[in-house]
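Chapter review: from sequence to fold.
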Amino acid sequence: MKVVFIRCATESLGVEHLSSALKARGHAAALVYEPLLFSSFRLDTGGAEAASARRAARRAMALKPDLVAFSPESDYYGWALEAAAEIKRLGGAPTVFGGVHVTVSPEAALQRPEIDYVCVGEGELALPALCAALEKGFQPDGVPNIWFRRGTETVKNPVELLENLDALPPPDKDLFYAEYPGFITDSYSIVTGRGCPNACAYCHNNSVRRKYAALGVKGQYVRRRSPASVTAELAAAKAKYGFGRVSFCDDLFISDKAWLGEFLPLYKAQVGLPFFCNVHPSHVDAESAELLRQAGCSAVTIGIQTVSEKLRRETLGRAETDGEVRRALALLDAAGIFVYTNFIFGLPGQDEAELKAVAVFAARNPAGFHDVNWLRYYPGTRIADEAQAAGLLDAAGRAAVEDGRERRLYAHGGHSYTAERSRLRNLTLLSTLLGGRLTLALLNSGAWRRLPSVNLRAPAVIAATQLARLFGGKKNPYPNFSLSGTLRYGLHYFRRSQLP
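The token string follows.
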């Protein structure tokens, strides 16, 4: 069978893994990509770019697919439904939806006439099995992880987790490389495992864990590829594509100290490139920071979210102390690693005093860039339950979250934007550039209220990373796309989508 994936806004490691799984079983895979230049996490002008969804559907149908596949995040779920509806209007192929959003709300997804099949959980075995059934003219009865409608009935096949991640073929990077080489050459994105040891109340790991528990899914939620498997993929890809950086996209990269101690020396010897990863404050100690430094780690993101230990513990389900956070920042700074912190504004129980405390923390604890995102409620998360119980999210708003009727990009407003909060956010975003003393002076005098409420994140992060690169000796202070890579990406797709 021929499967056409429709994807928007970003490269998808999930789609790459699914494509390689399909090809390993004799099926064909193709990609239709829409950049959403003006309504994505990079830049949002408030428009949904619905016309691009219909355009994507027409491009997909021109490839004569036997099955059209979508794996959208919650914020692009509505866009994907628009594309799927156009597929149906054109009398096209059956559709299958996967990813976190439909995994958490599969029953709601199957109420949509645009969706024929849903993959609940991991799809590397499920999608090829679905294709094999359809190719023979059968419905996928008994195919693990695939749910579908039969008349008024919803057929719910059992949901299973993959046990041996090393048995999977490497991701099909050619799929996105053929679309735009910079996806791969600017920084090679990879995941070394599945799942996260934590289940923070606002995160998809929280909602997926809860759904798996409700379905009685057995097996280990947190799994890791062997160091040899990861190193082999990277060494082969480096020789093929010639990239100069690596982005480890695991939710938490350094949570398993024994694995890290085995992998990083292999990585240094066989790959030897600067890299980015995500870390947790409680996992950063002198040993892990030194391992990262020696292996060439150039940048990390560390989630702090709030400086209230009570709020962090009771609302977010995180146990680390402020002392652990400060120690982690100091160790990473001493290792010469560019650090992006991550705070959330608009949490239940968070008042202006606590938001000001975040700005104070940023002023007194320098980092490469103190980042702040807006709270965004995702389907099935505990924090959405708490917000509804506290009256911050009404029943209609909760229903909109669950069925994906809204776009709430957490970098551009989420569910918690106010102009006053945005001014405090901008003060925190600018703290690295302003310095601690000036940041505190603006805060204590109340002059921060004169800051604009427009989103200053993009210019602030550009300035911070370029100053670090030019004057701070940080050659690769980026998570994935570099600044020049981002500009090349924008120009490439502007020419393709906006110019005759």
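Two observations follow directly from the output. The two ends are 34 Å apart (CA to CA). The chain has a mean pLDDT of 96.
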